[in-house]
Amino acid sequence: MTLIQSVILGIVQGVTEFLPISSSGHLAILRNLFGIQTDGGLLFDVMLHLGTFFAICAVFYKDILRMIGETVRMISDIGRNGSILIHNKKEKDAVRYKKILHNNYRRFVVMILCATIPTAVIGYTARDLVNLAYDSLLAPGIGLIMTAVLLIIADAAESGKKIPKDISFTSAFLIGIAQGISTLPGLSRSGTTIAASLISGYDKRFAVKYSFIMAIPAILGAAILELTQMGSSHVSVAQFFIFFIGAAVAGIVGYFCIKKMLKIVRKKKFRGFAIYCLIVGSVSIIAYIATR
Fold first, then answer.
1. Where are the transmembrane segments (predicted)?
2. Which residues have a Cβ under 8 Å from the Cβ of 261 and sit 6 or more positions away?
């Protein structure tokens, strides 16, 4: 892989990961059309994932730090409730238990957990199917057209007002299923989860925040899974530097695209992205048919 190819793929990853146009679909199409190969196997994919991971952390660092703090306090409160249970049983007492989910951030943490479980199960069990889909122009084409349909539906959905205190964990679980299905190339992860959140009546700003923060465990999980599959491939220092530049570009571009996405969702202007996905998806399918 050349430095120019690394930068181009980094830009594509940064833009398409956070705008609702599918990073997996674009990368699959680019690699199939132009035969771009990464000399380090899966290492470049892992580094691209980490670049987008740091972009999310940079934009939502205040929320993430608060969630980490509340997670620690929740664990402490659960331990405290265990001690109270033992005390009440032993002493025949009625000491009140601490309420665990008493604020929005604690509910947000549990919502992320509820979404991560189905995403992990679907992502792991369907990994062979996903890898097979990457080798064809047909699958990303169909996925992009499905993304276009979802965006049109989200554009037409009424504006909701739900924040964590109003949202059931079943709803969070279902959106986690949507995120798991979006591992298929062409189905935009951000587009699918934001659309599902808006259709479910979530507040617009919270829908974006939930979509991107719930991506953190998914991105880290995918990176870890890819690392375990890398085997003993060796990458030169020069090649690693090229990969690093691509990942840095993905992170920087991704940071600004998240900011842009916050503005887009606030105005609910998805139609342009839907048209774009429809065009690119159609071209991909036509190219697949033409090469048969």
1. 42-61, 108-126, 138-157, 207-225, 237-258, 270-290
2. 18, 19, 20, 190, 208, 212
